[in-house]
Amino acid sequence: MLGALTVLLLFQLAGEVLMQLLGWPVPGPVMGMALLFVFLLLRGEAPASLRQSAQGLLQHLSLLFVPAGAGVMLHFARLGEEWLAIVLALLVSTALALLVTALVFRALATDDEN
Amino acid sequence: MTRELASIWVYLATSPLLWLTVTLLAYQAALWLYRRARQSALANPVAVAVALIIALLLATGTAYETYFAGAQFVHFLLGPATVALAVPLYAQWPRLKRNARAVLAALFCGSLTAIVSAVAIARLLGASEATQWSLAPKSVTTPIAMGIAEKIGGLPSLTAVLVVTTGILGAMIAPALFRRIGVRSEAGRGLALGLAAHGIGTARAFQSSETTGAFAALAMGLNGLLTALVLPLLAGRLPG
User: Fold this and answer.
1) In which band, very low, low, confident or very high, does the pLDDT at B5 lie, cut at 50, 70 and 90?
2) In terms of domains, do A53 and A71 share one?
3) In this structure, are residues A112 and B185 in contact, taking their beta carbons and an 8 Å threshold?
4) Which of A43, A87, A107, B119 holds its CA 20 to 30 A away from the CA of B25?
5) Of B67, B87, B89, B85, which Cα lies nearest the Cα of B77?
6) pLDDT range class, residue A38, cuts 50, 70, 90
7) B183 and B128: one domain?
8) Which three-class secondary structure state does DSSP give residue B92?
9) Nearest residue in chain B measured CA to CA from A82
């Protein structure tokens, strides 16, 4: 557990440093994910402790969005004025993105159940 | 007695411990409710937890900044959790590779749809320019979206809220939408959830199955990269 957490933090750190050096607009954690993925590909397997820790962390992924979500209270005034535009934009655009992604994939996928 | 309680409150209200504990308690209560509601999409745990916390903050007159000083320890874990997505991604690699063409095409079309439709609808309905640009990266995971918003003239803290709301909405409407259009494949559902609803959609996808979650993680990561590269270019070209 401790070892796995250290590995995750190390890759995040490597991602942050690399992005600072390259000056790309990609956040460190996303680069860290890409680096860890490449590392696992090269290594040929994911260690059991890393698999367990990743699963434990991802099981409660939605908890991690709660602090940022509570920030909605800072924007009550703007939301009060523009709530209709915002709600419709979010709802319709999210539905469209779900539809387009799922349908394009279904049309082109080769080995899928559909 | 009352004065003692008040002084204990004054002490606790500014310590990170209290608001960290409140965050975990609110989330557990929200999870309990979600199970009691037989996992109804309307009882989305993030939405319920956020509502409980805001109610408490307003009732006690606590500033969001004070709350976040404690809750930031939970927020921080978004980083290592994002890195951890590499693990399920690796487990699904053979399957991803077989469908590489379909995956990339779906990501590209979905990503553009998410950006353009959000800005277009907000513009048609007369939203302010800052709101439009804050909406543009709404389907991308929080840290990326905030960085992009800053670059294109949106408000990063508003974007964070819109991103979380998008995630909640996506997780809520996806199951019914997939049923309606008959998308049954785990891969297709996962891709759509991760692309349109980032980490919250991915969390929802992991509840369905490991495969669905892995495809969601992939879509979330790639959409983050793609949007970070494309949106600043697109924003420069759209008529203001």
Assistant:
1) confident
2) no
3) yes
4) A87
5) B85
6) very high
7) yes
8) coil
9) B127
Instruction: Indicate whether A53 and A74 sit together in one domain.
Output: no
pLDDT, tens digit (0-9, with 9 covering 90-100), for B171-192: 999 999 999 999 999 999 999 9
Average pLDDT over residues B129-135: 94
Domain boundary (B47, B76, B105) is at B76
User: Chain B interface, mutation test: which of A94, A96, A103, A108, most B Cβ atoms within 10 Å?
Assistant: A94
pLDDT of residue B1: 62
Could B110 and A97 be called an inter-chain contact, meaning their C-beta atoms sit closer than 8 Å?
yes
Residue to mutate among A8, A36, A39, A64, with most B CBs inside 10 A, is: A64
Neighboring chain A residues of B202 at a CB cutoff of 8 Å = 58, 61
- The DSSP-derived string for B25-72 is HHHHHHHHHHHHTTT-GGG-HHHHHHHHHHHHHHHTT--HHHHHHHHH
Residue B211 has pLDDT above 60, yes or no: yes
Query: For B160, which residue in chain A has the nearest alpha carbon?
Result: A68
> Rounded distance, CA B46 to CA B165, Å?
9
Q: Could you report the predicted ipTM of this complex, rounded to two decimals?
A: 0.89
Task: Measure in Å the smallest separation between the Cα of A84 and chain B Cα atoms.
Answer: 8
Look up the domain containing B158 and give its range. 84-237
Answer whether residue A40 shows pLDDT above 90.
yes
Residues B226 and B113 both lie in one domain: yes
B55 CB-near residues (< 8 Å, 6+ apart):
none
Domain that holds residue A85: 66-114
B88 shares a domain with B28: no
